[in-house]
Amino acid sequence: MNGESDIPRRHVYGRTKGKTLKPRQANLMETLFPRVSISLDEAVIEPKTLFGDVDEVWLEVGFGGGEHLAHQAETHPRVGIMGCEPFLNGVAKLVSEIHERDLANVRILNDDARFLLERLAPSSLARVFILYPDPWPKKRHNKRRFINEETLGFLASALRKGGELRFASDIPDYIAWTLAHLSRFNREKGETFRWTAERAEDWRRPYEGWPGTRYEAKAIREGRTPCYLAFERL
Predict the structure, then answer these.
(1) Which of 84, 107, 132, 138 stands 20 to 30 A from 145 (CA)?
(2) What residues does each domain of the chain span?
(3) Catalytic residue numbers?
(4) Nearest to residue 5, comparing CAs of 36, 43, 49, 33?
(5) Residue in 14, 9, 6 with CA at minimum distance from that of residue 141
(6) Superfamily of domain 4-233, CATH level 4
């Protein structure tokens, strides 16, 4: 198996394009983006080969406008950080941040993260961020949520032993959904993910070095309480 055409195309939900890009953004998408874009041509992708000399690799699923990813890349220059985002305008914003901050340790897939996750070499990631994913609140749309048995299988394969999965949301139903799906995955596949919280404060307090995101700020303004879950890959 080699190349995208060998794998059936999944449906990608949600918007993939918004307003017309500003001239500067459009120019960077033509000049800089091809140099930081992740190709899916290989059947198996070893993340470290996408970067120069890095100690480990992290992945952010659905990075939105890229503010969190750019902060992590700037704060951890020895870490290679991959980001997946189907929404073109969000990708353009992150590409602008890469240019402005001169970030050499970021690579981007302008597509659904599942297409990358299914190709990643086993135990190749040290950390994965899933921050404020689309909650798909209508019951008939719950199946579109990113956390499901398939993606948990991809994450279990890609995360190394001792690796960390971070999931943040302000939607109580999605938080309960995530905990239930991880618990079911552990029952069916064997203990794979350990929720690291020991007390309520652990999921109420942001992660160390947390810069905040626009989605979090909106949730707080609208009276919703963010929840920060962390799981260790066993």
Answers:
(1) 107
(2) 4-233
(3) 134
(4) 43
(5) 14
(6) Vaccinia Virus protein VP39 (3.40.50.150)
